[in-house]
Amino acid sequence: MPTRLDLSGQGLASLPDPLPASLEYLDLYDNRLTSVPDELWSLSGLRVLNLAANRLTAVSPSIGALRNLHTLDLGHNELSVLPDELGELSGLTEYLYVSDNRLTEFPAALCSLGGLKYLGCTDNRISTLPEDLSGLVSLREFRLYGNGLIELPESLGALSSLRELHLRKNRLTSLPHSLGQLSELRQLDLRENRLTSLPGSIAQLSKLDKLDLRWNKDFREPPWLADFEARGCMVLR
Q1: Model pLDDT for residues 17-58, shown as the tens digit of each residue
Q2: For the chain, what percent of residues have pLDDT higher than 90?
Q3: Of 10, 147, 150, 166, which has the maximum CB count within 10 A?
Q4: Whole-structure pTM over 0.85, yes or no?
């Protein structure tokens, strides 16, 4: 029985019946699906599921049964909410992409994904994040650009594995002091916000090699930025 099925870009409005029960990899990228059959959620061996670039308006709570998933792509659909059951996907360690949907809230349930390394939530309509993000302890790359974020919680500083934080094109006027605790951070993208200053704690980020501050109209540059550049950090203004 096949363990891999690539049905991407085929204009499908429905799925073949039946799907092989042995599937570990299912790629349905770029079709015309408005929903998926319940049978899909019974494929307990799935490790990679790509449902991006379809016309999905909802995802069944039954997705929580896919405990072996390590990679899930739901991007470029029409989703306004995500089921809390995503937080039950304890095997989701590699990649979760929910960008370019219609989300107005960041699902707090995602903060239960303690093994997740990459989380993309860009190009939605999210104005705030949950107060407690500390459960995302393994996250290395967090992409939140193109939303409408007006503030960030102090708990962001608890993401001790974070290497890239992408916050371009939001409405941030300030940043939490706790960002200085992100000792592994390499890239910090703050373009197209409303920042006027940076917390002094950011000066402690010894591994930062790229800081992008462009298009913050009234930004006042702190003197320690020169020290960043002297040690080789690329600072874009």
Answers
A1: 899 999 999 999 999 999 999 999 999 999 999 999 999 999
A2: 97
A3: 147
A4: yes
Q: Which amino acid is at 121?
A: C
Q: Which residues contact 179 (CB under 8 A, 6 or more apart)?
A: 156, 157, 185, 188, 199, 201, 202, 205
Q: How far apart are CA 36 and CA 197, in angstroms?
A: 47
The four Cα atoms 28, 32, 38, 42 give a dihedral, to 10 degrees, of: 0
Average pLDDT, the chain: 96
231: Cβ contacts below 8 Å, ≥ 6 apart: none
CB 220: neighbour CB atoms within 10 A? 9
Which pLDDT score is estimated for 49? 98
b/e map of 100-139 (b: 16 or more CB within 10 Å)? bbebeebbebbbbbeebbbbbbbbbebeebbeebbbbebb
The 10 Å CB-count burial string (b at 16+, else e) for 155-171 is bbbbbeebbbbbbbbbe
The pLDDT of residue 1: 63
